[in-house]
Write a structure and sequence with these properties.
301 residues, seven-stranded mixed β-sheet, FAD/NAD(P)-binding domain, single chain, binds flavin-adenine dinucleotide, 31% strand, alpha/beta, 19 strands
């Protein structure tokens, strides 16, 4: 049966959109491969009334609530292709054939690609962190590292300085300009030049940042701005317009989260430069409203 909408990605954005469509009694299928971006962290923070709850638990609760709506279907799996035009999309799901839908929401999130430094990836979401607003409070002050990966890393270090005593490891990136150096000094950020060779376990549960020159520094946490990449290539194959941001490429959307392709919407980290659970949930709600309004005012209603 043709669905009113298919949502690729059952994360925070996708499920938020699903509530809107389910409550409008629309037939919606959510395809999800079960790997939300924050799955590496045991707790989520800064989410209204849910501070400290795990992201996976929040999503499991939402899925359980949505399952109670008779027009909602969940498909566990990977959407590998999508084609068609408004009112007639076909979405291929590995092991599940093809699903037909009038509208399509891309809510598949982004992938964080970390620098290839031994010891970094296995600590991601635990002591190697992406955002001080999400996880900075729990560090409780003390020595904190910021690993430069990007020209904006110096700015990140000046922000993180509100959470502890920050060392910016330049990791052989070009030294910041004079104005930035002055700002780093004003924010009490120390600069540590030289390539980082490895992240190890230090004393008292700290991380040890080892430089190629042999020097080591123990810190309580290390912030790293990962390289952000859209997941999969469905948006590109449909011809959706992309835009560059300092964080990487994202999908271009309008105020109701419609992409440049009629009938295709995008919400979540894949369509905003900085995402967190609250912001992407709001985007999902907006996309749900946008899709519903667009379904209401077209021929099939
Ligand atoms: C380590 C870490 C910790 C974080 N902690 C916090 C925090 O404490 N508080 C906070 O507010 N924010 C936090 N964030 C940010 C937050 O996780 C993201 O903003 C949020 O997950 C984005 O939601 P989304 O719905 O866009 O994507 P996601 O949550 O990543 O969900 C996307 C979903 O789409 C699925 N998917 C992808 N491709 C396909 C496909 N082709 N077919 C089917 N399914 C697909 C994935 O499996 C996934 O389930 C954290 C991020 C990281 C990296």
């Amino acid at each position: 049966m043709q669905q009113d909408a298919v949502i690729i990605g059952g994360g925070f954005a996708g499920l938020s959109a699903a509530y809107i469509l389910a409550r409008a009694r629309r037939h919606v299928t959510i395809i999800d491969s079960g790997t939300p971006r924050n799955r590496f962290a045991a707790h989520s923070h800064g989410v209204l009334a849910l501070d400290g709850k795990s992201g996976l638990e929040i999503l499991a609760d939402a899925r359980a609530q949505l399952t109670a709506y008779p027009t909602v279907t969940f498909v566990e799996g990977e959407a590998h292709a999508a084609e068609g035009t408004i009112d007639d999309f076909h979405i291929g799901v590995t092991g599940h054939g093809s699903i037909a839908a009038r509208r399509l929401l891309l809510a598949s999130g982004i992938e964080d690609r970390l620098p290839d430094i031994p010891g970094l990836a296995e600590r991601w979401g635990k002591t190697v962190l992406h955002c001080p607003y999400c996880h900075g409070y729990e560090i409780g002050g003390g020595p904190i590292g910021v690993l430069a990966t990007h020209p904006m890393s110096a700015h990140q270090a000046t922000v993180v300085a509100d959470w502890g005593d920050v060392t910016l490891f330049t990791n052989a990136m070009p030294e910041p300009d004079e104005a930035t150096l002055a700002l780093l000094e004003r924010r009490n950020v120390s600069l540590q030049p030289g390539a980082v060779s490895m992240i190890e376990t230090g004393t008292c549960d700290r991380l040890r940042v080892r430089l190629e020159n042999g020097r080591t520094f123990d810190v309580k946490a290390l912030f790293v701005a990962a390289d952000l990449h859209l997941r999969g290539t469905i948006a590109q194959s449909l011809g959706c317009e992309l835009q560059d941001t300092p964080a990487g490429k994202i999908l271009t959307t309008d105020a109701i989260k419609a992409t440049s392709i009629p009938g295709v919407y995008a919400a979540g980290d894949n369509a905003r430069a900085f995402g967190n659970i609250t912001l992407v949930s709001a985007d999902g709600v907006m996309a749900g409203l946008g899709m519903h309004q667009s379904l209401m005012f077209t021929a099939h209603s």
